[in-house]
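Protein in question quoted in full.
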Amino acid sequence: MWRRGEGTSNKNPTVEKQIGGIPRLLILKPFKMALNFKVYQREDRVSLGTLASVCGVGGNYRPCSTANLKDNTKRLVLTLTRVDGTSELVTCSGELSKRLRNKEIALSQIANFEIVEQMTDDGDIMNCVVLPATTSVLPSVTVKQEMPEYQPVSTFNPEELIAF
């Protein structure tokens, strides 16, 4: 895309010089676009662990305030508290905030959701609780004891196939 250039005349910036009121030469210069194309590389998110692992045994997490829980225009913020009394704030992703407020997901179901470091548009680092990578929330099973190896049981009797 090209447009008329700025030229050197202060009175008429689209021409280089005017002779007797008639433009002598028009200069074409590349048009500057408002888009700034850059090479973007996806950076891997830094995982800080799950809500349960960060809080630790005996710790808890809850919405930081009733006002934040009711405000649909903002992301939900959780207060994570450890047994020793120390606490930290983490923000839920937009979709997770929406699902928690609509009661599609209960607060007790997000214990195994991951906390990641995320860079904001301003360059600040924010800790954010995100939904699992799948579109549906999958249940998690904790193995509490070693299971015996699977032994198939034969229910097939070849003698039943022979006609007498």
In short: The CA atoms of residues 6 and 13 lie 5 Å apart.
